[in-house]
Amino acid sequence: MFNISRRIDQLRDSINFFLKLAKWPVAFTMILVVPAMWQVCKRYYVIREQLNWHNLVYFAIGAGCFAAIRVMILLQRGKAETLEHEMTHTLFAMATFHRVSGIELKETGGGSMRFSGKGNWLIAIAPYFFPLTAFTMMFFAVATKQIVGYFPDWIYMGLGMTVCYNLFSFAEQTHPHQTDFKVAGYLFTISFLPGANCLSFGTILAFAERGWDGVLFFYRLLWYYFRQDFNVVLNYF
To answer: Are 134 and 199 in contact (CB under 8 A)?
Structure first.
């Protein structure tokens, strides 16, 4: 048992070391994702008549309904958002082999989670680019299709609502005084988050439009334009 625990700790430290080495190359990659994403959006506009608007309309209805409710009721960030935030930290801590010892939600609205090891920038910054609720709904949609054989319209509405929920949550959480940004580094945070959010929400929107085929098409387009931008940078130097 002791040997297993020690090996897990060694694996955790190796992952942390790798993430430390990869930190700025990843940041550079995310910087290039932003202009590539702009080109992807322009391409989608060109082929707009070929898009599956039935799915996108239901997605927009779900997003619009949640946004209207949120604005009219003026809901403040509550324990649900805080719990999701800490659960996202926890998910990425466990994914990088950090033993999580607990999650605490405070009455004042904040929260924290405790884990072993030094941690890494991925754990710190995960709740600001990984929409946990929306991705959970996305995989629930996949499970639903396996059972009934198709995606019901309410699935697209649910995706729209969860995406809108996560966008509101991200907007409330993202501010200069976030201690998580200090852990990851402010310059890295500014470099990383825009591109990372393009990937996250782009994936979900592509899935809503055409399922996994839409996701594959989205990443093919993104890769095509990313390579163009990368070559421009290489030629500059």
So the answer is: no
Both tokens of residue 53? 């608007």
Contact 59, 208 (CB under 8 A): yes
Residue found by looking up tokens 């609720």 in the block: 133
Model pLDDT for residues 3-35, shown as the tens digit of each residue: 788 888 899 999 999 999 999 999 999 999 999
Q: Is there a contact between 179 and 79 (Cβ–Cβ < 8 Å)?
A: no
Question: In this structure, what token pair is assigned to residue 43?
Answer: 């391409």
CB-based contacts of 93: which residues, under 8 Å, 6+ apart? 100, 113, 115, 119, 123
The one-letter amino acid code at 62 reads: G
Q: What's the one-letter identity of residue 69?
A: I
Tens of pLDDT along 195-220? 999 999 999 999 999 999 999 999 99
Output the CA torsion sign for 143, 148, 151, 157. negative
**β-strands 111-115, 100-105: how paired?**
antiparallel
At 101, is the pLDDT very low, low, confident or very high (cuts 50, 70, 90)?
confident
Percent of the chain clearing pLDDT 90 (strictly above):
72
Q: Residue 165: CB partners within 8 Å, gap ≥ 6? A: 66, 133, 134
The domain spans of the chain are 39-236
